[in-house]
Amino acid sequence: MVRPEPIAAAVERRCDRRTIACFNPPRRSVVNESPHVYRSDRWRIIRSGRGLLDAVCLWELGNVSVDFRQRLCGLIASWMGIVAFVVMFCGGAPAEVVVRPKPAPGPLDNPLKGWCPYTNAGPIHQPYSMVFQYVSWKMLEPVEGDFRFGEWERREWDVPAARGRHVVLRVWIDYPGKPTGLPDWLVAKGVRLRPYEQFGGGLSPDYDDPRMVAAMVRFIEALGRRYNGHPRVAFIQVGLLGHWGEWHTYPRTELFASEKTQRTVLAAYRRAFPDKQLMARYARGPAGELPWLGFHDDMFPEDTDNGKDWSFLAGLRRSGRAGNWKVAPIGGEMVPGQARRWLGEGYATTLRMIAAGHFSWIGPYCPALEEPPDERFTRRCAELVRKMGYQFRLTEIRYASPVRRGDVVEVRIRGVNEGVAPFYYPWPVRVALLAPDGRIVGEAKAQVDIRRWLPGDFAFGVKVPSDVPAGTYRLAVGIVDPGTDEPAVRFANALPVWKKWTILGDLRVDPRDDRSVD
Question: Which residues contact 370 (CB under 8 A, 6 or more apart)?
Fold first, then answer.
């Protein structure tokens, strides 16, 4: 086993010039080197002017700045050339470690954000954590009541480009230019298919046929049983209705579903997926009434907010859904084939629309599917991903060290979300104690809901037990994916990582009776 490098090995010690004395923890003593200066290799005691003494040591661990403060009681026994100190822990309080990590570029493949490409459209040239999957209803339920979810997953989810990544999925019935996705058994029951010519032509079913509506509701229920708790499913797009499952039949508006059918389908999705985030194409009609619904703009960034009343963001504003991003994701597809344009001369617009729309992801067509023409394209891809969705950076960590074995260590963490949106699932935050060999020997879950970390500052605390043998441990934090039970979200900090845990600093645990200085 490769053991992690001990944190203390990289410590550089610096002390204030006002130092007059120091406390030597290994020897548990104050060492007199002169009538005015007490020194050791680890501590310096300096006068505070209030009858107390402060020991201050500033070190650097790689890119981590640490303030290490210990308030001590001091008694000056004589000014006759001999300075004697009786040093003790003030009120038994341990030292406070303050870690202020330096920022670093955020990861490009953090979960549930960034590029979300097709898996069957050629090589993927940029880091990504999600893939987009279209599938027809006919493929998933070729025979009434016989659902082929597993067969589809094995064929599409296990290909190398998708393996191990989260999935955004949409089910369609009418895909222009392709054979109908309506199951044959519904056609046999008499559900009408009406031809159209736009977008390459196709067949639009009668969405309001009672047999069709009842079958859609049963299918959505089955879809929810399969995917509501599925750990790989990121977001569900509310499809089925309209061309590509995008809830329109433009310009043949008479072919689209009635508002009654739309409400029935939306309600069925909501019941079937209480634990997944749902997304719709447009914030209009019944979909525009829902404060919990996410949305996707499939003409990003050209029609995101182009000054027309039919643009994506204009629709959100008109329906009162402009604030839905605070509780539900915004995503969408870049104008197909136009990545070089929108990362070239149109890049300022792209950046502005990411921020204005609070986008968390872009796909299935996205710049990751284009071979980079130059370094600027790659650099801008990275900049966009870091701006999309969340990007968490830690700004300060405080905890006590050393502590006695069995004490509860209160860890206080502050940070900032530098992205444009929150994280949309209640993934747990855990703080752990790691032994020198990397084993987790103590762990606690923070009582915090990361869905509330909107852009801007956040803070939380957690109490970690230290019922471990005396020694030096590493304090680590992780935002854990419930599907793997391992840390998954990484921070935009120059901090070491050990087996996906972000290392915050050293914690020394002393024996239970080791609390006083003789």
Answer: 125, 339, 340, 377
> How does pLDDT run across 97-136, given as a tens digit for each residue?
999 999 999 999 999 999 999 999 999 999 999 999 999 9
CA angle 31, 37, 41 (to 5 degrees): 55
244 pLDDT above the threshold of 90: yes
Q: Concatenate the DSSP letters of all residues of 406-418 into one string.
A: TPEEEEEEEEEE-
Spatial distance between the Cα atoms of 333 and 354, rounded to a whole number of angstroms: 12
* Residue that the structure tokens 């444009």 belong to: 420
With CA atoms as reference, report the closest residue to 279 among 127, 421, 125, 109. Answer: 421
**In the chain, where are the structural domains located?**
95-106+392-510, 114-387
What tokens were used for 129?
């954590």
Which SS3 state, helix, strand or coil, does residue 329 take? Answer: coil
Residue 267 half-sphere exposure toward CB, CA atoms < 13 A? 9
Contact 89, 74 (CB under 8 A): no
Fold of 114-387: TIM Barrel (3.20.20)
Q: What is the percent of the chain with per-residue pLDDT over 70, rounded to a whole number?
A: 81
Reduce the DSSP state of residue 235 to 3 states and report it.
strand
Query: What DSSP assignment string belongs to 251-293?
Result: T-GGGSPPHHHHHHHHHHHHHH-TTSEEEES-S-GGGGG-TT-
CA distances from residue 492 to 242, 382, 390, 392, 432 in whole angstroms, order as listed: 41, 13, 11, 6, 19
Do residues 16 and 44 lie in contact, with contact meaning Cβ atoms separated by under 8 Å? Answer: yes
Coil, strand or helix at 367: helix
Cβ proximity of 136 and 202 under 8 Å: no
pLDDT over 60 (residue 61): no
Residue 395 burial class via C-beta count within 10 angstroms: exposed 0-12, middle 13-18, buried 19 and up: middle
To which CATH superfamily is domain 95-106+392-510 assigned?
abc- transporter (atp binding component) like domain (2.70.50.60)
Predicted TM-score of the model (pTM): 0.84
Identify residue 433 by its one-letter amino acid code: L
pLDDT tens sequence across 275-308 = 999 999 999 999 999 999 999 999 999 999 999 9
Element (H or E) spanning 312, and its range?
helix 312-319
Picking from 18-27, 291-300, 352-361, 483-492, which range would have the lowest pLDDT averaged per residue?
A: 18-27
Q: State how far the Cα of 79 lies from the Cα of 81, in Å rounded to an integer.
A: 6
